Structure formats: C-alpha cells, structure tokens
C-alpha cells in the first residue's frame, strides 16, 4: 500500500528517529511524537530537509487522553501507517547483603506504563480509525508496527518488568493480527535484540547481537513491506532465546544468573513518575 500519512512515537531518538528519517520523502506526511522538544524538533527538521511534511507533537505516550486526541486528529482524513516505537528499559537494582535484587514498585509501574500501556495508547486508537477507512486498491486499510524485544521471549531474572511488558505487547500484536488482517489492517511485532540507541548506551554489560540503528530500520521496514506478522533479529539470538524459554525454569535460570547481561545494578535506573 502507499504510505502517505505515517505516525511514529518515540521519534526523538533511536529506532523512532531512524524510521522517520528513512521514510521522509516529498510525498509523505510524518506525524512525529516524543517527549523531548529539542530532540524531536531536530528530527523534524532533518525530515523536512529530506522533503517530508514533518509535524511534531510533544507528549508522553502514557497520556491516554492526549494520545487519543492526537491520533484521531491525525487520522481525520486517513492514517496509513503507525509505528509504536516509544519505550524505556530498566532492571533490578544491585544485590543486597542476602544476594537478593529487586526493582522498585515505581520503576515496575513506569516500565509497564510506557512499554505496554503507552503502546496500547498508540495502537488502539489507530486500529479504531483504520477500521473505518476505505480499503485501497489492494484491499488494505492500514498497517501498525510495534517495537517489542527479544526480552519478551525469555524470563530474564534481571529485567522482569521489561520482559513482561514486551512479552505482552508481542503476543497482543501477533494474536490480534490474525483477525485484523481480515479487515485489511496488518499488524507487525518487532522482536529485536540490542540496537545501538541512546536507551542502551548506558548499559554496563556486553550486549550480544548489537546492531546499528540503520541496520535495524532496514530490517524493520523490509519486514513491514513484506507484511510479516513478526520481525526478528538477529535471528540466532532470538531463536536461541526461544530455545532457552522451553527449558525447565531452574536450568535456564542457572545459566542466566551467571551472565553479565542484565545483571542487577548494570542498567541505569528508570525515571519514576506518577
């Protein structure tokens, strides 16, 4: 389908910014959302230099009413493509004297609020709009892509809330897509490993399978163009993670607890809000 009107959350940096720059062209209207005004404006200006009609909107994806208003305004005429790219990550704090490690309640709720509820605040209004749109010449009404994570395929001890949020998002997108496709709305979930973005730059551990933003964006856009339900990369790490998740919990845990990845205290704390 022709992608003329595109909405992207998390466009201030990382994958969201990369998607915006890759999709910027003369016949495209880009509605770009983010929390950081300065970085969002920089993305918008870069997209405009590439010929796109780029329009910024500063808001937090956890603002359900604000997201609803924005997306409905954008989709008043037609909404062709949505990328739910906003996300945060965090892990358990440093071990205590007993060897235990926990996330704070505030961090858990913030990660769930952004990575799951924030994605749904993007996806659900977009779905509603697309259901009411006319089909194009190929019988399609729209596409929605959500950025999940390989973390959603495993029960990693150090990143419990992040894994839980991404698992729920991936399952929602893949399962909902079965019937949404009958209505001409294609859903894609992206299960990727580490992408070299500002979000992971402060991680204090080796990041296996780390890929550049440009490579990640190319893979995502190719998957969307092929109308894949789930896009995975790097394949070896995703498939290995799926295998680990089939093992008895104690066996997988014994391996994970020996790894530096996501070790308690190795991820920066999450900004806790309301």
UniProtKB/TrEMBL annotation:
Signal peptide interval: none
Oxidoreductase keyword on record: yes
Q: Which InterPro entries match?
A: NAD(P)-bd_dom_sf, Sc_DH/Rdtase_CS, SDR_fam
Task: Identify the GO cellular component terms for this protein.
Answer: membrane
Task: Give the PROSITE patterns listed for this entry.
Answer: ADH_SHORT
One GO MF term attached to the UniProt entry: oxidoreductase activity
Q: Which Pfam families match?
A: adh_short
- Which UniProt key words apply to this protein? Oxidoreductase
- PANTHER family in alphabetical order: DEHYDROGENASE/REDUCTASE SDR FAMILY MEMBER 7B (PTHR44196), DEHYDROGENASE_REDUCTASE SDR FAMILY MEMBER 7B (PTHR44196:SF1)
Q: Which family does it belong to?
A: Belongs to the short-chain dehydrogenases/reductases (SDR) family.
Please report the name of this protein according to its UniProt entry.
SDR family NAD(P)-dependent oxidoreductase
